[in-house]
Structures are given as structure tokens and as C-alpha cells.
Amino acid sequence: MSSEDIQLEICGAHNEIAVIRLTRQKKRNALNDGLILAIRNLFDNLPATVRAAVIEGEGEHFCAGLDLSELQERDAGQGMQHSRMWHAALERVQFGPVPVIAALHGAVVGGGLELASACHIRVADESTFYALPEGSRGIFVGGGGAVRIPRLIGAARMADMMFTGRVYNAQDGERIGLAQYLVPTGSAFARAFELAERIAKNAPLTNYALMHALPRIAEQPADQGLFTEAMMAAIAQSAPEAKERVRDFLEGRAAKVQKA
Question: Which fold has domain 6-200?
Fold first, then answer.
């Protein structure tokens, strides 16, 4: 499933980690339709052994956004269908088979920020910067950013980025919620891979609930969210693996939570 623009590597003692690498470094890993379709195809066909994935960009940047050199003139209907194609691809990242950690460095711009926002955890190194330059280019986000990015930083901050061209550095990006982790330059991938290894050890049903149930619960009215939570909790704790893990804890075989 590797190509000139994207590579897939299966790692770990049990082939449980998928490393997905954008490899258009001459274009600063800018996204074109072929790359977006490759991402969708890759997540649709991950090996059954995979329990977590890491996305990174080759070279100096994670992803500099939409490849404007390939932007075509479209009428409104064609433009809408094109945007929906992006939606379908990035939905497979957010609501796919495994948790996804983005290892960010350099440019996380436009469509690159839309891709990062579809991931479940974002680890940024100190070289990272974030921007949404669509406003100055006469276009609008079309890859799900208008839904996902405000959920991270709020609609007002996103609007400011697009109105004014504001660029957030790594420190301010982590402060407002664009990343959950901030690490020294050059170490984002190592930290992201470490997190993927940890996540891959969780019970698969718990990870599934965090990916698929938690974001939907967050959007539901409180009474519906509580009902959905109760159902998900009942399903998760009824799984044989969950019962075994609880038994291990009660009988002293499981590690206890330690102060960080």
C-alpha cells in the first residue's frame, strides 16, 4: 500500500503499530487528491494485527496543506463533491479501526491542520507552526476543518486564523489545544511512537469506545450522552479481556497508577 507519496510500515513485536509517512517532501508534503485517496485506502486496509497508528511527514514539514498547483477550476457542484471526498478520507482517520497519533513538525498548515485535527492525539515538536491561510487565498477549508478545528480551539480562534492569517508557534499551539504534547525539536515521532505502543496495549474495545463513542457523547444532550455512556460502559466491562484485566488488578498482578 506504499506509493511515491505515502509509505506504510508495520512495526512492533506483534506488528501492532502502523507508521504512515507522507513522502512528498519536495512539495512540503502538500496534499493532492491522489494522496487523500491513498490515505483513505490505507485506513480501509490496515492489517488486522494493527492496534494503533502514527502519521508523520518526511523532511522538514508535517504537511503544508493543499497542493494549490493542482487546484482545478470547478463549479459549485463539483467543488462540493470534491470536499466530500476529503471528508470521507479523513473520516477514516478519525473513525477508523485504530487510534491515530500525529507526529507534528514544521508546517502544519491548511489541509495539513485538517489532517492533524482528524487524529486522536497530536504530538508537536518545537519547530511546529500552525496556520490557515485559506482566507487570504479566496478559498475556504474543505477537508473537515470547519468542524474539527473549532472543537479543539474554538470558533473564534479559528476565525481569527483565517481572517488575519495568524500563525501559531509550537508553544502557543499547545497552549490553545492544537497539540496535547510539546517535545524538543526532532523528537515528535519518537514520542508519538511511544504513545502508540502504550495505546496498543489497551483493550481494543476500550480504544474503540474512545474513538467512536466519546466524541459522539460529547455532542449529545446530557441525558442522551449519559444513556450512551451507560450502554458503552456495560458493553466494555462485559468483554472477557476486561474481566481478566480487572481480576489481574484486584489480585495484584497489574501495575498501579503512579505519580508522573
Answer: 2-enoyl-CoA Hydratase; Chain A, domain 1 (3.90.226)
CA-derived radius of gyration, the chain: 19
User: Which residues are annotated as catalytic?
Assistant: 114, 134
Amino acid identity of residue 67, one-letter, is D
Q: How many CB atoms lie within 10 A of CB 260?
A: 3
Low-confidence residues in the chain, pLDDT < 50: none
Packing angle of the helix pair 145-153, 111-118 (nearest 10 deg): 70
Task: Please provide the DSSP assignment of 214-247 as one string.
Answer: HHHHHHS-HHHHHHHHHHHHHHHHHSHHHHHHHH
Residues of the chain within CATH 3.90.226.10 domain(s) are 6-200
E strand or H helix that includes residue 153: helix 145-153
pLDDT score, position 6: 96
pLDDT of 2: 61
Whether domain 204-250 has CATH 1.10.12.10: the reply is: yes
Contacts with 38 (C-beta within 8 Å, 6 or more apart), sequence order: 1, 3, 5, 6
- Other beta carbons within 10 angstroms of residue 259's beta carbon come to 3
Backbone angles phi, psi at 101, to 5 degrees: -110, 130
Q: CB of 39 within 8 A of CB of 55?
A: no
Size of the chain, expressed as the number of residues it contains: 260
pLDDT digits (tens, 9 = 90+) for 61-91: 999 998 877 777 788 998 899 999 999 999 9
Pair 18, 10: CB distance under 8 Å: yes
Helix extents (H) in 21-61: 33-44
